[in-house]
Specification:
Elements: H1 5-11, H2 15-29, H3 32-47, H4 51-62, H5 66-76, H6 78-88, H7 92-113, H8 125-128, E1 133-135, E2 138-144, E3 158-163, H9 172-185, H10 188-191, E4 195-201, H11 217-223, E5 226-233, H12 239-243, H13 258-268, E6 273-282, H14 286-305, H15 310-321, H16 323-333, H17 350-360
Helix pairs in contact: 3-4, 4-5
């Protein structure tokens, strides 16, 4: 076993890629000068030195492609990251999940450029600084909001930023599980708060929505968000994510899936791709919270005027006299609802007293 053997296992590389990186690592290890550059790149990566200069030297002296050397460096750095995770109390499962992103980027690089490596080396520093973690299907990190979002969030508010790795189907249940993991990991469950989640992606560009298969996972993901802003990309830089092609010869792009056929037509019609920035508010009791908010709004309006429409009266009466009020009341008693949720409608007398007053009027 070599220094990177365990890292290759942790990242889950395919067997042919494992063999390739083992071979080139042993070759570099046997060359004192090249190995010194690799060791220095690891030290500087964690200590904010000029690791890029060391990797450039290693690339030139080894004769290997830049993408390959950068991936080798990332594998080499996992050994120290493993100790950092252990010291912080993070699980080995969490390390393996997060380092799986190396495999996703490896496979993208092989598909797009035919090279075992990564063409997005800049992306990974956040993982090694323990700022970004893969929790289930999605990746998450803290971020400060760069603008005001209605009256709900102000510029500078801390939110959770999520990323979508190319880790297979984006099943709604996997997205839900990932959000639930983040909700717990980032302390929102303990604080009984709603978790604001932001995402910037080509999957949130509104003109793309009609190109996504009807009823599919991508539309489901889009529908979770309020797409607050979006912009066109005249260079169509995200086309490779769909077609695994680095060129822009759209008329020769593959059409072997519905998604590819749709975007093939889209691009060949001269339409531009783009990205969107979306926001969602996650809580495991989201449906319950929305119901309580709706009933609270009806209750407040009726208390103010002692007037209520027949439709709202029916809704409030059925809610109070049916099983849902009791379920919501018990959820509140069990501490499952956000601390700052307005919940007068769950008072045992509030709805009863209002209905009595309305009957008297």
């Amino acid at each position: 076993m070599s220094r990177i053997s365990e890292a290759l296992e942790i990242a889950g590389f395919p067997e042919d890629a494992k063999a390739y990186f083992e071979e080139i690592y042993l070759r570099i290890e046997a060359n004192e000068e090249q190995h010194r550059h690799l060791l220095a790149s690891e030290t500087y990566y964690y200590e904010d030195g000029d690791y890029a200069a060391e990797l450039k030297q290693l690339t030139e002296k080894s004769g290997l492609h830049q993408y390959t050397i950068e991936m080798l460096h990332l594998l080499f750095c996992i050994d120290r990251l493993k100790d950092i995770y252990r010291a912080r109390g993070y699980s080995e499962e969490m390390l393996r999940d997060s380092m799986a992103d190396l495999r996703y980027k490896l496979e993208e690089c092989k598909a797009v450029h035919g090279i075992w490596g990564t063409f997005v080396f800049w992306w990974f520093k956040r993982f090694y600084e323990c700022k970004t973690f893969k929790l289930g299907r999605l990746e998450f990190e803290w971020e400060e909001l760069e603008f005001d979002y209605n009256e709900t969030l102000k510029k500078g508010a801390r939110v959770i930023n999520c990323h979508i790795p190319s880790a297979g189907p984006l099943h709604p249940e996997l997205v839900e599980q990932a959000l639930a993991k983040a909700y717990k990991f980032y302390g929102f469950a303990e604080r009984r708060e709603i978790m604001p989640v932001v995402c910037e992606s080509w999957m949130l560009y509104p003109p793309h929505y009609e190109q996504f298969p009807n009823g599919g996972n991508m539309r489901s993901f889009f529908d979770r968000f309020d797409v607050y802003k979006h912009w066109e990309d005249a260079k169509n830089e995200d086309a490779w994510r769909i077609f695994n092609r680095a060129d822009h010869n759209y008329d020769s792009f593959p059409q072997d899936t519905e998604l590819r056929r749709n975007f093939y037509r889209y691009l060949n019609e001269g339409k531009m791709m783009g990205s969107g920035y979306g926001i969602l508010f996650y809580h495991p009791e989201a449906e319950r919270i929305e119901r309580i908010k709706q009933m609270e709004k009806i209750l407040d309006a009726a208390n103010e005027t002692l007037q209520i429409s027949e439709q709202d009266l029916k809704l409030l009466t059925e809610y109070y006299e049916g099983p849902l009020w009791r379920e919501d009341f018990e959820a509140d008693e069990a501490g499952k609802l956000p601390k700052n949720l307005k919940r007068g409608v769950l008072s045992e007398d509030a709805v009863y007293n209002l209905l009595e007053e309305i009957r008297e009027v």
